[in-house]
Amino acid sequence: MSWLYEFDVFRVARPMKCCCLSNLCLYSLASSIVLVASAVAHAQILPDSSLGGTPSTIRTEIGSGRLLIEGGADRGSSLFHSFQEFNIAPGDNAYFINPVDIELILTRVTGNNPSNLLGTFGVLGEADVFFINPNGIVFGPQSSLDMGGSFVASTAEAIGLGDGGTFSAVAPETPPLLVVNVPTGLQFGGQLAPILYQAQRASRSRGLRTQPGRTIALLGGGLDFQGAFLSALKGRIELASIGSAGQVEVTPNNQSWSFDYSDISTFGDLSAILSFFDVSILPQTLSVNPNLTERGITLQASDISLGRSTLFNSQTQTDLTAGDIVVNARQLTMNDGSSLNARAFATTTNDIRGNAGNITINASESVVVEGGIDFGFFSFPTLISTSSNGETIGFFSGIPNGISFGEGGDININTQQLLVTKGAGITASGLSVGDSGDINILATESIIVDDRISATNPNNPTIILTETRGSGAGGNLRLDTGLLRVSNSAEISASSIGEGPGGDILINADTVEVVGNAEVQAGSAVFNPVSVIGTVTFGEGEAGVININAQRLRLESGGSITLSAFPGSSGNGGELRVNASEEVVIDGVSKEGSASGLFANTLGSGDAGTVFVETDELRIDNQGRISASTVSNVAQSSGGVDLKLDRLFLDNGSQILVETFAQEGSRANITVSDFDVILLRNGSLITAEAINSANGGNIRLVSDDGFVVAPLAEDSDIIARSNLGDGGEIEIVAQSIFGLEERVAIPDNGTNDIDASSRFGQAGTVRLNELATNPNQEAANLPDTTGVPQISQRCNATGVSSFVATGRGGAPPETAMAGLLWETFEDVDAPALSDQIEAVPANVNALTEAQGWAVNAFGQVVLTTDGVDALPYAIASTPLCTYP
Asked: Could you name the domain of life of the organism this protein comes from (predicted)?
């Protein structure tokens, strides 16, 4: 037959690999189509005899030429058909007659060949159809559905029925007279043939389309779609690739069907290229099946590959909640501009109040979202996105006129490894009154966000984004993983462009790395944007909060974590909190000179944000930076930097910097506490400077047990000064301060300076408290009474001697007041001697008790062993002992 030959030529000519379906190479199935061409002749649908006295019959309708399928065995509200072969040629139409009171048509193919449904498969009524052929099912470029009910096509061996009955294609029997003839499951055995859909490209004029609120379900031993178009508006699309024997439970659900795969241990693969799957809710579908709750698209397979394909689930001009997109797989790969898109979209002046659907991806091993389609002057990125009131990135852009009060859907991804690269994106947007959805990603091993799409369109970054562009709140972004790496100009961002507040970012990881950029050339221009994790406000909305909990954080080659408020915005900056149990490393600059660092910068009229870091060790090297600044002169809060750590190392021009223009409100602050050591080297800087007439900020470095060290002649400074305003305050409390002196800091002067001066205003305050050398620290008072006096070793202890002590003997009341005029060897705390004094052995070098004192030529008091005549200035001596 020519139609079979043409289809096979298309299959061979199209560029594709032998699909990596786990159970059967799809080429073998497509090749078998040619073999049946001579057998089917004009009789493409051949009934078998398994139904006994109620066989299926075929006739051609006069006038239309379409094939009508009649007869079959009816059991209650179900009608059973059985065929040896079932094929529909391109351009042909085959319709099942739908008798009154029949709600379900169950059809099996018992022969050895696949079914080629390349024309129109129809039902003259609203009955649902279950169609099984264990040898495979093929759809082509002219395939279409024309029916009022749902369509379930499968390569299962049998359909399970109520009360334990089956309708089997491999062991055909007359269907039993059961009390319940509704399908309960699709039973797969050892033969797991795939389902193919091969066309040049998806076309809305053809394809598999049901009436609104119904289901299209394709369940086979592998699914391969080339140019497929599936549409179940306001309904459900179910695509499953089965890889093991077992039963898929099926349940009727308000004129639709639900599926349960708990009995299936493994799954096959699913590939879709240039395909489109749509379950949108349109205004004309509102009155259809209003009680259906399980709307949406479900993909169930092992390895799922989507290339230039779209799963689209929109809610347009209605008050209903759109269905969900659910992907369950071992691996999901999306590329070449593919998209999973769920949105609530107002296309006219009519408002909508329904919510967008959610997107849930469960991939036991990996999710890869990469690349896009580049047309030179524009591009379509590969995208996973939800939105309220339109979409600004990807295939489905629009400028809505109505207002969306509905909320954007959430994106939930659970996997081991997530890779977003080459200009792809994961986005949740709120573009009107409704709030944006959240993004929640759990990747037990790693999340890698990396790279750009192309040199011809470098402004399309690889991104994970939540945003609000209206009065609704931006969604929150949560990432839980072992390793988070953002590199080569990629971004993770939560932004506010309108009145609504931006969302928050929460990251829980073992290691977080934000690294560098890749130079991209486009014509004569060179673009060097940096990698960033950040929250940003462009309008009135508040920027969100960033919380990072990790063991290690590394920012390198221009990588940054940023709170930003852009020029013209009035929203306040948020908070950036880093809790790294081991270390934070900030190192280097990007190729165009952008510093690596932690930033809270406000370029609008709002208050600056604040950076908080708690870690064991913070190392800032090679011009890395921690910065909080504002250019607003009316900001009530100038932001600040608050560090709590054990060790702080700054080297090679690195900075901790706060800057402010604000003339009122709080000053910018830098606080470092609980440190063991702060080491500044090679032109490093801690500064809280004020611009123009603003007052200098405050710097507090406080640790009772810490040290502040700056090696000599390395030009490292601590500065809190102002130009026109007053100088700031610098307070350092530490055990010791080495290498720094209070004086005016001059760039490149080769000294390490502490400076709180003002050029034209009042100088600030510097307080240095070095606990290790402070003479007042823990000063001890001398006792008011002496100890028991020692008996002169020249006297015999007889018990009749006496000693008189008057006052302190010239000693000061406190050790802190002691001068250097008197020197004595007397130990006031020496233990008292008893009456029994041990004899001192003779020794020519032994110390001898002083017998007097004198003043030498230098005015010094000298104790001497000689008598009063030893020196001309002798005043007193110790008399020899005599007995009374």
From this structure: Bacteria
